[in-house]
């Protein structure tokens, strides 16, 4: 008998919540005076990058825009503001979020925990709402591994250069030694020939 993993159960809850939000948003949007467009529902980013969660809304009256982040770590409120009025940014995102008049937000310096679902709700003052969802995937660049490879490559290049110089010096020394030995042999052979000549 196989038991489902705890992580997959949590993922199922998140997917179920997303589906419920989307269905509710679609049902309410059809009868409301608020329209919301999400041009890029899927965003891929790398760690430390800035991302734009882009939306475009229109409504008859004054709108309140709210953004929430849902991931395996839970649900976090990011920001809520009224068009032309106050902006209430969560303490967790205080220095990382910029809001735009069209309802979009920019998230600076993303990390792995920023991956997940981003829900935007546009609420009209007369009580009609519109909903949108953006999925953000964050990938990590492993700088430590790249740094290690670069250092290792530099070290191996330096060792290779030293070995090549050492082999060249050994080769030079061997040639000098052979020349001296050949010269000595030639000199001793000449002396022997001279001695033999004298003895004769």
TrEMBL record:
Keywords: Glycoprotein, Membrane, Signal, Transmembrane, Transmembrane helix. The chain crosses the membrane at residues 12-29, 146-170. It is found in: Membrane. GO terms for cellular component: axon; dendrite; plasma membrane. InterPro entries: CD2/SLAM_rcpt (IPR015631), Ig-like_dom_sf (IPR036179), Ig-like_fold (IPR013783). Its main location: membrane. One of its GO terms (biological process) is positive regulation of excitatory synapse assembly. This is VSTM5 protein.
């Amino acid at each position: 008998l196989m038991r489902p993993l705890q992580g997959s159960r949590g993922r199922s809850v998140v997917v179920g919540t997303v589906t419920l939000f989307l269905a509710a948003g679609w049902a309410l949007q059809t009868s409301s005076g608020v329209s919301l467009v999400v041009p890029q529902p899927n965003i891929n980013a790398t760690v430390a990058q800035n991302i734009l969660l882009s939306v475009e809304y229109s409504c008859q009256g004054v709108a309140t825009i709210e953004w929430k982040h849902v991931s395996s770590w839970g649900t976090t409120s990011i920001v809520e503001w009224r068009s032309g009025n106050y902006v209430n940014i969560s303490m967790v995102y205080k220095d990382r979020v910029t809001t735009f008049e069209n309802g979009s937000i920019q998230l600076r310096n993303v990390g792995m925990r920023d991956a997940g679902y981003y829900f935007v709700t546009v609420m009209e003052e007369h009580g009609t709402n519109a909903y949108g969802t953006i999925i953000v995937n964050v990938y990590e660049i492993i700088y430590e591994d790249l740094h290690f490879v670069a250092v290792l490559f530099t070290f191996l290049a330096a060792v290779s250069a030293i070995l090549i110089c050492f082999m060249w010096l050994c080769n030079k020394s061997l040639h000098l030694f052979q020349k001296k030995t050949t010269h000595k042999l030639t000199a001793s052979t000449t002396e022997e020939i001279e001695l033999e000549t004298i003895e004769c």
